[in-house]
Design a protein that fits this description.
mainly alpha
Length: 108
């Protein structure tokens, strides 16, 4: 539900930024599901919370479809996404590029 809305709008960061965002979404949803499953197995919450989690993620995915189609995104959301990209994604990409330049392929 999240991959298609994320890929519909071209980003400034290119393919790598969307790839990293996809990994973050995947890890977040997996860890959320695992946390709720363990809580249900220990009897802290009802097993129906697993369905509630899936319904919330479905709603978030549908909301992303609706939001990405809107032309006028709220300024604070756009600014927050740009800050995240500038402060988190770009340094990670620079680090990866630097590591690759220090260790060319085929040489160890």
């Amino acid at each position: 539900f999240f991959a298609l809305p994320i890929s519909l709008k071209p980003k400034r960061t290119g393919k790598s930024g969307v790839f990293i965002l996809g990994i973050v979404v995947l890890l977040t949803t997996y860890n959320l599901h695992l946390f709720i499953y363990r809580s249900a197995a220990e009897g802290q919450v009802n097993y129906l919370f697993l369905w509630l989690e899936q319904l919330l993620l479905l709603g978030l995915g549908v909301g992303l479809f609706w939001w990405i189609e809107k032309k006028d995104h709220p300024v604070f959301i756009t600014a927050a996404v740009e800050i995240i990209i500038d402060r988190i994604v770009q340094p990670i990409l620079r680090f990866i590029t630097l590591r690759r330049s220090e260790h060319p392929p085929g040489r160890m």
